[in-house]
Amino acid sequence: MPISFIPFALHQTTGDEAVKEDQFGGADVDDVVRILDLCEQFSYIDKDAINMMGISRGGMMTYEVLSKDERVHKAVVVSGLSDCFMSYEEKVICRPYSILW
């Protein structure tokens, strides 16, 4: 019987230092791209049917991966941050921790 799906999940970096250096999808997105690289190593993974799902911050990361890598064929985003600039303007409390700007 063929495998229908293989779930992968990332552990978001946490802790005081991670918050101070939050790249808002930088290194975390690179980790997702490395998982896509890993998928290419396994013959039982259909490279033409790689899908991705992200919730909240994972949704923002999903958008970022879709903008960088064409190997993801379908994506589902649930409550994902879609406008980083607007979020920055609205969430003043987060500004000291952001290195985007």
Please explain how this structure is put together.
38% of the residues lie in helices and 10% in strands. It has 101 residues and is α+β, with helices and mostly antiparallel strands. It has a two-stranded parallel sheet with strand order 1-2. Helix 2 crosses helix 3 (57-68). The model has no long low-confidence stretch (mean pLDDT 76).
Outline the secondary-structure elements:
Layout: H1 16-20, H2 26-39, E1 51-55, H3 57-68, E2 74-78, H4 84-90
Parallel strand pairs: 1-2
Helix pairs in contact: 2-3
Strand order of the largest sheet: 1-2
Total helical elements: 4
Overall morphology: elongated
**Major sheet: size, sense and barrel closure?**
2 strands, parallel
> How many beta-strand runs?
2
Low-confidence blocks of residues: none
* Spatial gap, N to C terminus: 50 Å
Q: What integer value in Å does the Rg equal?
A: 15 Å
Q: Tell me the structural class.
A: alpha+beta
- Report the oligomer: single chain
Strand content: 5-15%
What's the helix-strand series?
HHEHEH
What's the helical proportion of residues? Answer: 25-40%
Mean pLDDT metric: 76
Keywords:
about 100 residues, alpha+beta, two-stranded parallel sheet, 4 helices, about 40% helix, elongated
Summarize the model shown:
This protein is α+β, with helices and mostly antiparallel strands and 101 residues long.
